[in-house]
Structures are given as structure tokens and as C-alpha cells.
Amino acid sequence: MSIQLRVHTEAFGLKQAFVISRGSRAEQVVVHVELSDGVHIGQGEAVPSARYGETANLVTIAIEAHRRRIESGRLDRRDLLELMPAGAARNALDCALLDLEAKRLGRPAWQLLGLDRAPAPVTTAFTLSLGPTEQMAEEAANNAWRPLLKIKLGEGDLDLARVEAVRKAAPRTEIIVDANEGWDLQEFRAMLPDLERLGVAMIEQPLPANDDDRLREIPCSITLCADESCHDRRSLNRLVGLYDMVNIKLDKAGGLTEGVALQRAARRQGFDVMVGCMLGTSLAMAPAMLLAQDARYVDLDGPLLLSDDRENPLAIDGSTIAPPVAALWG
How far from the centroid of its chain's Cα atoms is residue 120's Cα? Predict the structure, then answer.
């Protein structure tokens, strides 16, 4: 069976600038992959990350390098795990192959992956972008009705005031924070008692990934989650005893095939699981919905931050995301 590959870059505007400790953006550039057998079309989306040396151009080149094998129809998802490294390029291809397989066989993707049940709606965190304290407090007040807020941090001494302001504006909401590797050991140690006092439920990637071992120096009663430190299954052994939870993102893991394997391996090694995302469209979130069913935290709010989305988008009611329709994915 021959396959036709189409790969192209798209840009989606944001409702407002999205800021983390490493920088800001006003739009999100993604790479869209389509695989057609002449009857059915499978699709996937890659969200390149500068943190991992990825750009839309490099992701496209990585995919195009395998065009001949892809279009021969001799490439399946298991081959892909050996052919390409974990990352956004492999994610787009893996999800497109799975979508095409599901459509050709008339079976949902969750069954093809050996999962035990169909996906149901989940509750996602809503992310507050890093910004001035007053601005973040206003955003928190506007979203205080949501069950879970995720606060972007990473500027040391200013961060505690931000958490204080958000907690005051949203006193009944569960709060998790994400430093995006923005703190050093001294800053983290100094803030920790106040983060505990303010009822922060989880801290994501407080230190740079290459400083993870220093987490042993700080007893912490708050759940610690590895993000930049966790990519695929090979990441896990090094994280034991340092983190309580790992954040699985398909663009880091290199697709849903590896994502499912990573989730199972993480649980076997005693980690809890968060399912997160890069800032992408509903197409990027749809495959992650299958992982989100058993996750302690779900952070798939990318479409809520975009000013426009794809056709047949995920249905989102407040902070509740419904599973994708077949016309979108899976």
C-alpha cells in the first residue's frame, strides 16, 4: 500500500502573548503532517521547541528525510521508534500513522494501542502566563471559577508575590506552579516554606534539568514533577528519588506509541503522571487525551489560549475537554 505524505508549516495566533521564563510569543508555529492512502487521511501535529533545539524547518527536514520509506507504505509505528529519535518530528508522524491506521481499520485508536477503555472528558489546568503581579492576579480573578490553575514562574524573588496574589484572587482553586527551570537551589529553598503555606499542590521543574541531583538537598512536602528532565522511558531511572511525578508531553516523547509505553513504565517505577502539552491546536491535544484518562494532572489547555483553532476542534466546556471526534483524530 503506497502512502502520500504532505508536510507543511502553519501559524496560529494567540489571544495574548504567552510568556514563560525562557521568553514569549504572540503566535504558535506548528508542523502539520498528513498521510493519505487515497481513501483515508491520517494527520498529526508537531510543536517544535527551541528548548530542545527544534524549529519548524528542522522538524520538516527530519520528516522529509524519510519520505521514500513513508510513501512506500513499509513504515509502521514500531519501526518509527527505532528510525527516529524522540521529539516533535517523530510525534507528528507517529500520530498521523495511528490516525490513518484507525481510519483504515474502522477501529478507534485507543483499541489499537491496547488501552482498556474509550476516552472520557477530562478536566484541564488553565495556564496563567508569566507577567507582572497585578496582571497575573487579574487573570486569576477572571478564572477563579476554574478547578485548577497553573502558574508560570521563573523569576526568583518576584515569584512569591505572584503566587500570593494569585492565591488571594482564587482562594478556592487548586494551584500548581511551573518554574520552567528558572530557579536556582537557593531561590527554591527560600521560597519552599511559603509555597507550602500558600497551598501549592505541585511544583513543576524547579531547577534546570542538569541540576536535578540537587533536589536531594531539599526535603519537600509538595509534589515535584519532572518536565524538561523527562522525555521518554530512558529518562526515568535517573529521576527516581528526585521527583514524585513526570510530565508526559507527546512532542518530547516522540509520539503516542512511546507516550503509552512511558506512562506504563513510569507507574511501574512509582511515579505519578501529569499529561501536558506544548502550545498547540486541538490536533496536538487529541492524541494526548488517551493518556489523560489516568493522569493525576491534565494540562491540555493549548486551544484555550489560541485565537483560532482547527476544523472539528475539541469541544471544551469551561475546563472540561471532551474526546476528539473522528473527523479530527483517532
Answer: 18
pLDDT of residue 156: 80
Q: Which of 103, 150, 152, 252 is catalytic?
A: 152
| Exposure letters 86-124 (e unless 16+ CB within 10 A, then b) | bbbbbbbbbbbbbbbbbbeeeebbbeebebeeebebbbb
**For residue 239, what is the enclosing H or E element?**
helix 236-239
Q: Of residues 103, 150, 249, 252, which has the active-site annotation?
A: 249
pLDDT band at 157 (very low <50, low <70, confident <90, very high): confident
- 229 grid coordinates: 528532565
Domains recognised in the chain with CATH numbers: 4-111 (3.30.390.10), 122-321 (3.20.20.120)
Q: Is 150 a catalytic residue?
A: no
Please state, in angstroms and rounded to a whole number, the distance separating the CA atoms of residues 326 and 330: 6
Whether 21 has a pLDDT exceeding 80, the answer reads no
Given a cut of 80, whether residue 126 has pLDDT beyond it is yes
Average pLDDT over residues 191-210: 97
Write down the pTM of the prediction: 0.96
CA–CA separation, 173 and 192 (whole Å): 19
Does 168 qualify as catalytic in the annotation?
Answer: no
